[in-house]
């Protein structure tokens, strides 16, 4: 039996639109062994091409001279996933001329054909954003 795989990563240099789904500038990895599904950079949504378990990873940098924190949420079909929150906060007492913090979330998610994954930004400003989805 032939095994098909999915390995997709999308990049966004900067994102600061609050209360919205993060979208992306371009795909850095685009390997989808199926004729359907994939990661739409404009909508920021991954549509599952085949039922199974997927490893998702999200990384971003936070310039803490402009933002004291971020609050994002990984969503499945528009609903927050348990343990899908991505938070990074810095105390306002700190005095930095330049400083960068980062936030990372990796988790496994069981998906059925056609279900969607995305990252929703509640607040903050993020840079060097990378969102990856891989079948396992």
SSE blueprint:
Elements lengths: L5 E10 L4 E2 L4 E7 L5 E3 L4 E3 L4 E12 L5 E8 L2 E11 L10 E12 L4 E8 L2 E10 L1
Antiparallel strand pairs: 1-3, 1-11, 2-10, 4-5, 5-10, 6-9, 6-11, 7-8, 7-10
What does the model show?
There is one protein chain. This protein is an all-beta fold. The chain is built from no helices and 11 strands. It has strands at residues 6-15, 20-21, 26-32, 38-40, 45-47, 52-63, 69-76, 79-89, 100-111, 116-123, 126-135. Strands 2, 4, 5, 7, 8 and 10 form a 6-stranded antiparallel sheet that branches. Strands 3-1-11-6-9 form a 5-stranded antiparallel sheet, with no helix packed on it.
Summarize the structure.
The chain has 136 residues and is mainly β.
Features:
136 residues; six-stranded antiparallel β-sheet; five-stranded antiparallel β-sheet; 0% helix; mainly beta
Write down how many β-strands occur, each being a DSSP E stretch of 2 or more residues: 11
Radius of gyration: 16 Å
Largest sheet features: 6 strands, antiparallel
Strand portion, in percent?
over 45%
Q: What average pLDDT do the residues reach?
A: 90
Unreliable stretches (pLDDT < 50, length at least 5) are none
Series of secondary-structure elements, N-terminal to C-terminal: EEEEEEEEEEE
Helix content percent band: under 10%
Count helical runs. 0
The secondary structure category is mainly beta
Shape verdict: elongated
Question: Alpha-carbon distance between the termini?
Answer: 16 Å
């Amino acid at each position: 039996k032939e095994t098909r795989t999915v390995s997709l990563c999308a990049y966004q240099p900067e994102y600061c639109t609050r209360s919205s789904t993060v979208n992306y500038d371009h795909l850095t990895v685009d390997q989808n062994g199926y004729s359907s599904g994939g990661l739409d950079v404009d909508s920021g949504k991954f549509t599952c091409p085949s039922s199974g378990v997927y490893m998702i990873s999200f990384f971003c940098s936070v310039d803490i001279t402009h933002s004291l924190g971020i609050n994002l949420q990984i969503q499945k079909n528009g609903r927050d996933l348990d343990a899908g929150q991505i938070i990074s906060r810095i105390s306002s007492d700190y005095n930095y001329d330049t400083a960068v913090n980062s936030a990372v979330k990796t988790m496994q998610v069981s998906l059925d054909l056609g279900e969607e994954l995305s990252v929703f930004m509640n607040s903050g400003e993020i840079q060097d954003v990378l969102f990856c989805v891989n079948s396992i």
